[in-house]
Amino acid sequence: MNSSIALNLRDTAAASAPRPGSQRVADDKALLRAAAEVARDLHRPNPTIFWADMLASALIGYGALAVAATSSWTGLAIVAGVVSMLALYRAAMFIHEISHMKHSSVPGFRLGWNMAVGVPLMVPSFMYEGVHNLHHARTRYGTVDDPEYLPLALMKPYTLPLFVLVALLAPVGLLLRYAVLTPLSFLVPGLRTVLIERYSGLVINPAFRRRAPEGDARTHMLIQEAATSAWAIALLTMAATGIIPLHAFAVYLGVVAGITLINQIRTLVAHLWENEGEAMTVTAQYLDSVNVPPPAMLPALWAPVGLRYHALHHLLPSVPYHNLGAAHARLTAILEANSPYHKASYVGLPGLVSRLAASTMGIRR
């Protein structure tokens, strides 16, 4: 899942010498064949795991949010706020699974997730469904038609902190989108078109324009959008009239901002961002993506719900999050040491951030 706020950063690409393009990497057929074979029995999602994980994360998150909003002890409020942010972040990341799953495989999960997480956090699932799958399209990844790709490694150094910090504006942007622009868009046809094309997807590529959903997708979008709009309007009304104390409202906005900030940092290291716009082979896409497997423990917090295996996910996008660890273990055991598979695994967040920062300064690692 990527930021809901896109930056017009493509014009800030560093004027450096051409780099070896990852798009020129040929497909490693042994790797692709091995990935397909080890995952034959791993494609079925486990409904019990999905529901238990999502609901537990949401309950912990909202419980901690209540403590943070009502506690008079600053230390406890801060700790509770961090717990709330991390738990609700994990719950929110199920939007990624929803965008890939066959909904009949976990009946009712999309509806339940939207009621428990998507609407309250103002990120209903339609903002990822029908958008994220384009990031996995063979001929779109890393190109100007990819909604979730920017060549960050080729841009100027100042774009990285800007890319991260803009996420803090997400709560205000989401309230504006749902409490103000959504109702207006049904009265102003031109605004409706702009809202769907530019502000109805969790994307980072400012050149991307979403096509209006059709059929069932349009129905789901309208229902989710109406529910989220009603929630945003009610939230602002309750805060303005004192039904919800302004302090509690500010804590809620702070937690949502924290969720988008940590997700933006995760997005920053989800790929190497070194492609210059050409179509890439599947192996090249894999090598431009990042795994942060065990024994590292912190990725379980900043890259939850299988996102620590982001590169592997690009090889096996239909494998549910709870089976990616098994797929990784199998591939690690059977592939030779010189296999490209091992080249996408990294130690942790600091090294990945420093690598990306060095790349923006023209330093190759």
UniProtKB/TrEMBL annotation:
Species annotation: Sphingomonas xinjiangensis
One of the record's GO cellular component terms: membrane
A biological process term (GO) from this entry: lipid biosynthetic process
InterPro entries: FA_desaturase_dom, Fatty_acid_desaturase
Coiled-coil ranges per UniProt: none
Protein name, entry field: Fatty acid desaturase
PANTHER family in the record: DELTA(5) FATTY ACID DESATURASE C-RELATED, FATTY ACID DESATURASE 2
UniProtKB keywords: Membrane, Transmembrane, Transmembrane helix
Pfam families assigned: FA_desaturase (PF00487)
Domain Fatty acid desaturase, residue spans: 72-342
Membrane-traversing stretches: 49-69, 75-95, 160-180, 230-262
Source taxonomy: Bacteria, Pseudomonadati, Pseudomonadota, Alphaproteobacteria, Sphingomonadales
Entry's Gene Ontology molecular function annotations: oxidoreductase activity, acting on paired donors, with oxidation of a pair of donors resulting in the reduction of molecular oxygen to two molecules of water
